[in-house]
Amino acid sequence: MVKEFRRFTICGYDRAHGLSSGTGVGLVSLAKWFAERGIVVQVLMLHMGEVSDCPFIQSLVNAGNIRCETLSMDQCPDAARQARWILGRLLDFRPDVFCPNYAAPGIFAARNLGQAEVPIVVVLHSTGVHTESVVSLL
């Protein structure tokens, strides 16, 4: 049986004046696709540089119907603290589905969701050893 979901959280990275990445473009497209279908979307973005200069964050903010929360990696470079921030946001939002999306702190947060019983969806952006390693962590 497939459970209907209404709330979706996905993680990602953004960099001010940085190069666009396939995972970032995919994140924005996926978030917008869900939001257009009435799903409440929360995006947790770890970023470097000013938020106003981060292209993916700005695209999400401009969409208007996506809840985008950010954490500066310049001010919080510790991955364990980033994972705790993500966990805190997840506990506040209570998504029906969580996608760590190749964000290492998101993967660590997913492993620690434990008894929250939130399904974890992995979006595979490529094949190979790296992808297999990420999937094996979950």
Q: Which terms summarize this structure?
A:
globular; alpha/beta; four-stranded parallel beta sheet; 4 strands; 138 residues; single chain
Account of the protein in words:
With 138 residues, the protein is of the alpha/beta class. It is 41% helix and 20% strand. The protein has five helices and four strands, in the order βαβαβαβαα. The chain has a four-stranded parallel beta sheet, with helices on both faces. α1 (22-36) runs parallel beside α2. The two termini are 22 Å apart.
- Describe the main β-sheet briefly: 4 strands, parallel
Question: What is the helix content?
Answer: 40-55%
Strand order of the largest sheet: 3-2-1-4
Q: Quote the beta fraction.
A: 15-25%
Judging from the principal axes of the Cα atoms, what is the shape? globular
* Uncertain runs: none
Would you count the extended β strands for me? 4
Please tell me the overall pLDDT: 86
What structural category characterises the helix and strand content?
alpha/beta
Order of helices and strands: EHEHEHEHH
Distance between the termini: 22 Å
Radius of gyration using CA atoms only = 14 Å
What count of helical segments does DSSP give?
5
Summarize the structure.
By secondary structure, the chain is of the alpha/beta class. The protein contains five helices and four strands, in the order βαβαβαβαα.
How are the SSEs ordered, and which strands pair?
Layout: E1 7-15, H1 22-36, E2 40-48, H2 55-63, E3 66-72, H3 79-93, E4 97-99, H4 104-111, H5 129-137
Helix pairs in contact: 1-2, 3-4
